[in-house]
Amino acid sequence: MTGFGGQMDLLIDQTGQPWPNGSTALRRYLGQPSSTADLAGFVVCNLGFARLRIRQGTILLSVRAGQLEFRALEAVVRFLVTETWQRLVIEHMDRRPDYEIFGRVEDAVARLKDLSAPSVALAPRDPFFSQELSLDRLAQSGQQSLQSLLALWRARRGQLAPNQIIAMMPGPLKSRMVLTRMHRPDSLAPSRALVEHIGSGFRVFDACWALGAVGRDLEQLPDPGYGERSARAYHEVAALGQPRFEHVDAVIDVPGRPVTRSRYERLMLPWRSRGELFVCGASVLRSSYPLEPAAAQAVRS
Question: Which of 27, 38, 160, 230 has its CA 20 to 30 A from that of 203?
Fold first, then answer.
């Protein structure tokens, strides 16, 4: 089977059945006894097939948004899980040339579900999913910047002034850090997470928003639902006084901007300075992309 770099070239139909690209059996199945110049492109664009090509650790997956049915998606996922690869390139056949690159199977599968047929992509889901991970996973994640930040917290025993936290933040994390001042007016009032500093790398929000966010409650994000769920973790870390490492998969709906799905790992640390409590959240973005129109409309309906 030749194609992408002279190695594997498969077509997966809507039932999940794999076919060698260009095979006589596939042409007979489709009622195309003679060779067609771009049979693969035709079946991907019009019949809901997926095309998989693999070479030297890279998989090129060609799909058309909104066409991939569940059994085809299942077959593609099974292929991704069982094959050994370092990089997945998704080619969008409906808006060529357009490519997305993924390095982890979890991120790739999440993206493929969003690109699938409405019966799959529009299945009900929690717009904010978070899963707490063991701190031991930091060493396995390959995120040296997050490891360095945790090492700093431990070395300082959680004691550092806000300006020093910002100054000593590892470079790769500076743009995606949020520092909150945990404020409780009195013992009976609920705690508030007031934004002390926010990085410039949260592109899902308008750039001007960050400038006016300082001093406001973290819950007052442009997407209130996302703000409330995201801020909840800051309050929990403040209450427990312990680091927290978590995976977040969130759908973010900011008025006037595309509905976006973002997946990231976030390390949250409680800091104390002169009797005040601060919580810092620093994240590494795994993937972020606008949802397809039908899925975006479902979020807003």
Answer: 160
